[in-house]
Amino acid sequence: MIAATARGVAFEVVRRVFEEAAYADRAFRSAAEGLGERDRAFAMQLAYGTVQRVRPLDHAIDTLGRRPVRKLNPPVRAALRLGAYQLGFMGSVPVHAAANESVELVRAAGLERAVSFTNAVMRRLGEGIEALLAGLGDDDPSAAALKHSYPDWVAETWWRDWGREEALALMRAQNEPPERVLREPTGGLEEPWPQSRGSQLAGSAVGARAGERVLDLCAAPGGKATQLAAAGAQVVAVEKHPGRARELEANAAGLGARIQVVNADALELSGDLVGFDRALVDAPCSGLGVLNSRPDLRWRGRPLPELQIDLLRSAVERTRPGGTVTYSVCTMTREENEEVVDALGLVPDDLGAEFPNFRHPRRPEFLLTLPHRHGTSGFFVARLRRP
Predict the structure, then answer these.
(1) Is 218 a catalytic residue?
(2) Residue-range domain boundaries for the chain
(3) Cα 42 to Cα 100: distance, rounded to the nearest angstrom
(4) By the 8 A CB rule, do 273 and 251 touch?
(5) CATH of 6-134, one of 1.10.10.10, 3.90.76.10, 3.10.180.10, 1.10.940.10
(6) Range in 28-42, 198-212, 304-318 the model is least confident about
(7) Catalytic member of 330, 332, 344, 368
């Protein structure tokens, strides 16, 4: 790894995300250990911003650098992306400073032969990137996906579901910094917990009461599980991956939450985990509601309706007759929202009556938070009642 300067850390994160399919938050956590607070903040802004805006950055490098980005040596590609981001989206960085830093990153990577090329491309970017980015349009999904840095399928989905103006508002909102919210300690929990208002809404919609047995099928890192425990529920929290199960246990202990953690596949639970009053399925999804806090997710996320339906069916089997199953996902697509719920064929509770500020605009019995309307992460929530 290149020496732990702020730009060196950002370089490592960008390289690992795109060359090794690493998660940005995990790559940053390990790379930034030695940084002070100020350098850490700058490194995060630079790394996350570059990952987020990589599509117009690559377009600028392709156009002005006169060589396809995909054919560049990975360290050169990462250095140019970082430099392009500083010039295109961090206007206070002088051209010579961004160019010099990109050159030094390439040199530190042992690619002296690529130094002159990197310097030349950075100079051309300095002369033309602002005008090039300003000239990008967003009249149709394809153009908007390039300008605002999204995969085509995301732009097309939002265009279809929300229309042009709302789709563009969603794109802009998901390129802004996420809200910073702490859930206050309640119900005996000892520490606050960073959790968006959209995520807290999903936990509240479960309706857990003191003494009830509640099953959380996809529980790590534990935000909603500890929220349920704070309501006095007896929570069994299931997590498939051993490392994340350990993280969940540590988080619950740190908050003073009494939770039984089960390291198991939610689709293959033991026969004794039955008869729950309530269940929560905060399912894996495309993550389109949290793209501002998970910059790499827009490039790796995909809809997962089949898995979501299977998880819901498992939760229904584990819930007593008359009990409820709450389904939440941090995304806003019909395929992963109302169509998943409809596939179960169960009667939904009217959550819109309980939380009128967050009624789904098409299906008022469901809840939907939208980043551009509510200023929080995007969450879909439904609560189904087992006959």
Answers:
(1) no
(2) 6-134, 144-173, 182-385
(3) 17
(4) no
(5) 1.10.940.10
(6) 28-42
(7) 330
